[in-house]
User: What shape does this take?
Amino acid sequence: MLNTLLFDLDGTLLPMDLDEFMRAYFAHLVPRIAHVIDGQRAVREIWQATMRMIENEEPDKTNLDVLKQQFLSATGLHEDEIWPLFDRFYEEGFCELRRHTSPTPIAREICQTAIDKGYQLVIATNPIFPERAIRHRMEWAGIADIPFRLVTTLEDMHFCKPNPKYYLEILDKLDVSPFSCIMFGNDVQEDGVAGKLGMATYLVTDCLIDHGRGHFDFTHRGTLADALMFVRDLPPLT
Assistant: This one.
């Protein structure tokens, strides 16, 4: 029986153009660290460290562990030189990126409707950002106070999308069957791979992303407004 709803954040519950958002992200971050590392090199090494994190298969290392190890090794910087600057950016500067998103009240209505019906909810955003950045985006989406069972973050997760082990880790943390879950997301590959584990899937098409790397059959598809109607039609759990 369906009892767990997983939601991607960027482009799903928080509509945005991801490419525009990432350009703005680096435009705001780089000036804050430019006195420590050349801006172009910083962007390159952050991307390289992120890719290393996405490719990681070592279950004993968190995503943060992998990111730090790769970035610090590649740049030769000490953690205490650069990481406090990253932390300060997420506390003080990241919030400036809100104007590059398009929040909708539909996101909160979906979540609140599901909670009222007795379903447990997960923010299944790709955990390549620290918790503070994810909490910022939840605030922008109007869902910061929703009682999610789990929010996947850089600090707590050991795998990233589109690795199926990311979803297996969520199932393990919640102690639920994939057949009791449905994954809502806008990325054909990163969110669609959940279906390979037996989860139902819902492709949210407003900010659709398709990397062209493999095809996935989604159980459902539609706009975020359609997803709201879907959740409204779910039976209440006793």
